[in-house]
Automatic annotation (TrEMBL), chain A:
Keywords: Phosphate transport, Transport. The keyword Cell inner membrane does not apply. One of its GO terms (biological process) is intracellular phosphate ion homeostasis. InterPro entries: PhoU (IPR028366), PhoU-like_sf (IPR038078), PhoU_dom (IPR026022). Residues 33-120, 148-226 form the PhoU domain. Belongs to the PhoU family. It comes from Allochromatium palmeri. This is Phosphate signaling complex protein PhoU. It holds the Pfam family PhoU. It comes from the Bacteria. The lineage of its organism: Bacteria, Pseudomonadati, Pseudomonadota, Gammaproteobacteria, Chromatiales.
UniProtKB/TrEMBL annotation, chain B:
Keywords: Cell membrane, Membrane, Transmembrane, Transmembrane helix, Transport. It comes from the Bacteria. This is Phosphate transport system permease protein PstA. It is a multi-pass membrane protein. One of its GO terms (cellular component) is plasma membrane. PANTHER family: PHOSPHATE TRANSPORT SYSTEM PERMEASE PROTEIN PSTA (PTHR43470:SF5), PHOSPHATE TRANSPORT SYSTEM PERMEASE PROTEIN PSTA-RELATED (PTHR43470). InterPro entries: DUF3333, MetI-like, MetI-like_sf, Phosphate_PstA. It comes from Allochromatium palmeri. GO terms for biological process: phosphate ion transmembrane transport. The chain crosses the membrane at residues 33-55, 220-241, 261-283, 290-311, 406-426. Pfam families: BPD_transp_1, DUF3333.
From TrEMBL, chain C:
Coiled coil: none annotated. InterPro entries: AAA+_ATPase (IPR003593), ABC_transporter-like_ATP-bd (IPR003439), ABC_transporter-like_CS (IPR017871), P-loop_NTPase (IPR027417), PstB-like (IPR005670). CDD domains: ABC_PstB_phosphate_transporter. Keywords: ATP-binding, Nucleotide-binding, Phosphate transport, Transport. Residues 40-282 form the ABC transporter domain. The lineage of its organism: Bacteria, Pseudomonadati, Pseudomonadota, Gammaproteobacteria, Chromatiales. One of its GO terms (biological process) is phosphate ion transmembrane transport. One of its GO terms (cellular component) is membrane. Transmembrane segments: none annotated. Gene3D superfamilies: P-loop containing nucleotide triphosphate hydrolases. GO terms for molecular function: ATP binding; ATP hydrolysis activity; phosphate transmembrane transporter activity. It comes from Allochromatium palmeri. It comes from the Bacteria. This is Phosphate ABC transporter ATP-binding protein.
Amino acid sequence: MSDTAVDKPAGDLMAGHTVRRYDQELAKLRAIILQMGEHVIEQTQAAVAALIQGDEPQAYRVLDREPQIDYLSLDADEEVFRVIARRQPTAVDLRIVLALSKIAGEVERAGDKAARIARQTLELRQQEQDGELLVEPLRVAFQTLDDKACCMFERSVRAVTSFDVTQALVIFEDEPALYAAASNLRDLLGESGDDGLVPRQAITLFHCAQALKHIGTHASNIAEQVIYVALGQDVRYRNREILIETLRHRGY
Amino acid sequence: MNNPADTTPPRRAIDIVNASLKRRYARERRFRWLGATAVTLGMVFVVLLFADIILKGYTAFQQTYIQLPIELAAATIDPDGTRDPATLARADYMKLIREALREQFPEVRDRRDRRRLNSMISVGAPDLLRERVMADPALIGTTQELWILADDDIDMLVKGYIDRNAPESDRRVSDQMIGWINRLEAEGRVAKRFNTIFFTHGTSREPELAGIAGALMGSFYTLALTFLLSFPIGVGAALYLEEFAPKNRWTDLIEVNVNNLAAVPSIVFGLLGLAVFIGFFGVPRSTPLVAALVMTLMTLPTIIIASRVALKSVPPSIREAALGVGASPLQTQFHHVLPLALPGILTGSIIGMARALGETAPLLMIGMIAFIVDIPKGFTDAATVLPVQIFLWADSPERGFVERTSAAIIVLLAFLFVMNLAAVLLRRRFERRW
Amino acid sequence: MNTMVEVMDKTTGAISSADLAQDRPSAATVGDVTVADPRMTCRDVDVWYGAKQAIKGVSLDIGKNEVLSMIGPSGCGKSTFLRCLNRMNDTIDGCRVTGSIKLDEQDIYDKALDPVPLRAQVGMVFQKPNPFPKSIYENVAYGPRIHGLTNNKAELDELVESSLRKAGLWNEVKDRLDQPGTGLSGGQQQRLCIARTIAVSPEVILMDEPCSALDPIATAIIEELIDELRANYSIAIVTHSMQQAARVSQRTAYFHLGDLIEVGETNQIFTNPQHRLTEDYITGRFG
C-alpha cells in the first residue's frame, strides 16, 4: 500500500465533514476526554506528592476532586450515544467514536487509580506512628515510577489530540521502562522489612505502586486505540515487539 | 447611502414587499379581467355565428307543398293495364298534376296564365309522384288528395322571404300568383312539411329539389378512406421516427420536412394530387378515392406530429420496465407504449380529420367542384363533399339556396360534432391510465 | 508494509497483499474484484457516451448468491455500469461499451447474442416503481407470457402466485389480482416490480436505487426481501444510501468519476476502507 492515494489524510481525522456540526460534535467529545486526561495527570501527581510527603490534606483534596472525572466520563458517554444515534458514524468516524468511548473508560479508570493512591496515603498516615515513612531509595523509586507513568499518560493524551501514531509508538517503547521501574519498586518493597516497614505498610505501598503501573498500562491501552483509529487495525493483545517493529518499518 | 447624516433606519424587506403588493394584485386583477373578457368575447361570437346560421338555415328543413286532388287516371299512366314498371315510369305525370291544378282554378283560361299557374309546381313534382305511384300501383285509377311539391318561388313566398307588399316589379312572384296562393291557403291546401328531399337527394339546379345527401356521402367516403389510410401510415411513421430510427442527419431532415409539410397551404396538396394521382397514376377525378389520397397527404403531418408528441409523453419508465423483463422493442411499443399514447394519437388524428372534413381548396383542384346530382355509391363514384357543396350553393343566385347553404353548414357542424363526440368517447375508452 | 498487512491478517482475515497484486486486473482498484464463485465477470469495461467516457476500465465480479452494492457520488457511473450488465444501455444513442462482460462464461456483448433473452436472465428493478398500467396479475404474467414460459393458464396462475409469494406480496394482493398495479402503495409497487422480474426466473437481478422513492418502512421490507432473494439469485444493487449498502450487501464497490476505486467485503469497507476517497465518501466528507 505504498500507493500515495491509499495513504490516510495528514490533517485532522475528525474534520472535513460536509455537515460541520458533525465535526463539532466529535471535537466536543474529544475535548471532554482531553479534559479528563488533564485532570488525571494532576490528580496522579498530587496523589503521589501526598504519598511521598505524607501530606494528608493533599490526599483529601485528591479524593474530593475525583468525582469530577467521573462526571466528565458520564458526559463523554452521553456524547458518544448522541453521535452514534444522530450521525451513524462509519469507517474512520466509527473508529473514532468507538475508540474515544473506550479511551474515556481508560482515563476514568486511571483517575480511579490516582484516587486509590490518595486513599492508600491516608491509610498509611493512620498507621504511621512517627516521622518519615519512606526511606530515600523508596522515594526515588516511587518518583521514577510516577514520572514514567505520568509521562506515558500525558503522551497518550497528547496522542489522542491528533491520533498520532508516532506518539503511540513511543508509549509502546516506554513500556519496558515502566515495567522495570515497577519491578524495581516491588523489589525494594520486598526487602522493606529492613527499612522498618511493617508488612501492612509494605502492602499498602505496593498497592500504590501497582496503581501507578496501571496508569501506565492505561496509557498503553489508549495508545492502542489511537493506532486503531489512525490505521484501522485493532492491535490489542498483539505481540508488542513485532508491533513496534512493524510500525517502525512503516516509518512512524 | 454613505451620507452619515442619513439616519433613517434601513427599510425592512417586508415593507418593500407590502408597498409593491397592491400593484402586484392590481396587475393580477387586470390580467384576469382581460382573460375573462377574451373568453366572453369568443363565446359571444360563437353564439352569434350559431344563431345566425341556425336562424337562416332552420327554414330549409321545411318545404312548401300544395295539396291537390289528383286523378291518377289509368288511361294516362298505364293504358295497357299491364302494371309494367317501364310503362309506369314513362307516363306523363306532369299532365296529371296540371289537370288537377286546372280543376282547382277553372277560371284560368289564358295560355300565359295557365303557364304561370303551372310554374307554381316544382319541375321535380312529377318525379316524386312517379315514385309514389310506382311504390304503390294500387293507386292507379283512384283520385287522391296528394301533397305536391311547390316551386321554390312559392316556397319563399310562403316562408315570408318575398315581401307581398313590395311593388310587383320588384318581386319574382306576380300579384296573380299571390292571389292563387292566398286562395289555396284559405282552402288549407298550402302547408310546410318536413323537407325529406334535403336529406335524400343530391344537388339540383332547383332549390326545392336540392339535397345534401350526395355531399354527405361524398364527405363520409372521403373521410373514411382518409382515416383508413392516414391513421396507420401516420402512427407507423411516428412510431418509427420516435422509437426506432437512428438519430442522424437524415432523420433530422425528415423531421424538419414533416413539420414544414404541416404548414404547407392545402391548395398545394390539391395541385400535387392533380399532377400525381390524376395526371400520373390516372386515378379517376372527382372521386372520394382521389380526394382521400390528397387528404391523406394533408393530414399525415398532423397525425405524425401529434402521435410523436403522444409517444414522447409516455414515461420512459414504462419502456424500461418492458425491456427489463425481456420484451423485444416491437413488443414494448405495441404492448405498452402505443396503448398509453393512443388517446393522444386519437386526439391528433381527429383534429386532422376535422381539418380534412372542412377542407375545400385542394378538392377544387381535383374536380370535386363538379355538379354531381347522383349520390355516390362507392369510393370511385364521382362525388362532392359538404364544404364544396356549401361553396357551390352560396354561389347560386336563387333565393332558395340561401337557406340551404345555412342548413348545409348546420349539417356540417353536426357532422363535426359527431366526430368530436366519437373522439371523446374513444379517448375515454382507451384512457385507462389507472 | 507487507509485514504489517500479514501481521494484521492473522486477526482480520483480510486478503494478503500478495494475492491482491496478482489478481487485480485494474491497477487502480483497491481490493479484490474477483470472487471464488462468480456469476458475472466484468473485465476492463469502458463505457463511452459519445466522446465522454463514463466508465474507465472497470473490472468486477458478481458472485453467486451474493448482494453486491455499488455506491458513489452522483455521476460516478455506478448506474451506467449496472445498465451495462443487461445491455439496457443499448437503447441509448451513442453509448459504446468495450471490454468483456460475461454471464456464466457467455460474453453478453457478443455480436451473436440477442439482448432480449439476456434481459430475461438478468432482470432489472428500477429507481421509480414502474408497474405496467395493467392489473397486478397481468404485470407479473407479462414476462412469462411473452417468453412462453408456461403452457396453460393453470401454470401461469401458479407462476404468478409463486412470484408474488417470493416478492412477499401475495398475502397483500391475492384478493385483488385483477386490480391495477398502479393502485398499490409505493413499496408494494416496487415489490410488484420485483415479482415481475423474478417471474421470468433470472439468474441476476439488477436494482437501480430500488428504495429511493420509498419510505423507511417500505425500504426495510424491500431490504428484507433482498436478503431473502439472495438465496436464489445474484443481486447487484446501486444505492445512494450508504447505510442501505451496509445493511443489505456482502460486498461493496465504490465508484468515483467512472473509476472503480475500491471493492471489498462490506464490513471492511464500512469500518476500514483502504482508499481515502472511499473513506471520505462514506464518512460524509464530500459529495
